[in-house]
Amino acid sequence: MDGIITARSAAPIDVFFQRDLGFGPLNFRPDLIPGVPIYLKNPTFPGGRAINREAFTVPQPARQGTLGRNALRGFGFAQLDLSLRRRFALTERVNLQFRTDIFNLCNRPNFGDPISDLNSGLFGRSTTMFGRSLGSNVGSVGLNSIYQTGGPRTMQMSLKLQF
Question: What are the extents of the domains in the chain?
Answer without folding.
Answer: 2-81+106-152
